[in-house]
Structures are given as structure tokens and as C-alpha cells.
Design goal:
The chain is an alpha/beta fold and 200 residues long. 43% of the residues lie in helices and 14% in strands. Strands 2-3-1-4-5 form a five-stranded parallel beta sheet, with helices on both faces. Helix 4 packs parallel to helix 5.
């Protein structure tokens, strides 16, 4: 193969993090469609932005209109979808960027794939809400389509969702408001994104 990576000549991650005054992290929010993943990510990002933090959001639906537009919802395509998202997140976090990922990520093997690629940079958040609760919200009209049989491999109906066993944080949006969930998330990562300056 005629591939010669040039990573050794690039500026180091620490150089980027010192410039930004923050440490990079990948906050991966998984859960059923309509559980509140994107809404929490947006709320948390806005607070961090007001604090002068540099952030980005990798939203599963948005990426499926571009980078992952050629992928469906079979097991193989879901695996490739998560692999691509993880690789993009890996690039962002290496630049010191606080990166939110909002993606259903329904199975343990998919989350294991993300963790294998991102390692200690991954902070896994399970946005918990039952199928029934998400169906009542149905913010995108997907549950109604699934009920009519118009969507194949719909997570929670035709495809299973395996709740994470070892999530770093669980946010139950049936008992917690979006504002409180975002605050709880920000508190959980506050120390992880802070740069500890040496005492002079």
C-alpha cells in the first residue's frame, strides 16, 4: 500500500488544547429516536459556547444526509455508520474539540466499536426513555410511520435496542427535564474538559 501517514509531523494535541483552553472529549449520546439525544446535546453545547468553549455536534440524522447518505439500516450499514462517525469524532477530539455525538447506537457491539476507536476520550451517555414514551412524543413522525409498516428495521419495533450496561451517565428523560439533563451532563464532564494549569 502506498500510504504514508504524516501524524508525527503535525502539531500535538496538547498544543491545540492549550490554544483552546480546554481538553477534547467525545460525549456520545445513545438512545431511542425521540429520547432527547439531540435536544440535550444542543442545550449543552449552547451553554459551553457561552462559556467560550469550542464545540461541535455530530448528529446521526444530519450525517445520513451527507457522509453516510449511502447507508441504510441493516446491521452491516449500522456498523459502518458508527465506524464513520467514530472516525470523524476521533479527528475532532484530537484537535481539542468538545464533540457531541447524537446517534441511536442500538447495540452493544456498536458502542464497543466506538469505544475501541475512541478509547478514554469517549464519555458514553444513555438517554433513557421507553418506546412508549418516545412514541407519544413522536417529534419526527417516525413512530407513526413505523406503526403503518412504512419503515423497515425501526429500532425498538423491528430492531432491538440494547441498553448500555456500563454507561458513564444515564439521563432519564421521562423523569428529568431537558434543562436539568443538560445541566447534569455538563456537571459530569466539567472536570474532564478543564485544563489544569501548573502552579507558578
Amino acid at each position: 500500500m502506498n500510504i504514508h501517514p504524516e501524524f508525527h509531523r503535525f502539531l500535538h494535541r496538547q498544543d491545540k488544547e492549550n490554544l483552546l483552553g480546554q481538553r477534547g472529549i467525545v460525549v456520545w449520546l445513545c438512545g431511542l429516536s425521540g429520547s432527547g439525544k439531540s435536544t440535550i446535546a444542543n442545550a449543552a453545547e449552547r451553554v459551553l459556547h457561552q462559556q467560550g468553549r469550542f464545540t461541535t455536534i455530530l448528529d446521526g440524522d444530519n450525517l445520513r444526509t451527507g457522509l453516510n447518505a449511502n447507508l441504510g439500516f441493516t446491521d452491516e450499514d449500522r456498523l459502518e455508520n458508527i465506524r464513520r462517525i467514530s472516525e470523524v469524532a476521533k479527528v475532532f477530539v484530537s484537535q481539542g474539540i468538545i464533540t457531541f455525538v447524537s446517534a441511536i447506537t442500538p447495540r452493544g457491539e456498536l458502542r464497543d466499536l466506538a469505544r475501541g476507536l475512541l478509547g478514554a476520550d469517549l464519555f458514553e451517555v444513555y438517554v433513557k426513555a421507553s418506546y412508549e414514551a418516545c412514541e407519544q412524543r413522536d417529534v419526527k413522525g417516525l413512530y407513526a410511520k413505523a406503526a403503518r409498516g412504512e419503515i423497515a428495521h425501526f429500532t425498538g419495533k423491528d430492531g432491538s435496542f440494547e441498553p448500555p450496561n456500563n454507561a458513564d451517565l444515564i439521563l432519564d428523560t421521562e423523569t428529568t427535564t431537558i434543562e436539568d439533563a443538560a445541566f447534569e451532563l455538563l456537571e459530569a464532564i466539567r472536570e474532564k474538559i478543564a485544563i489544569r494549569r501548573p502552579l507558578v
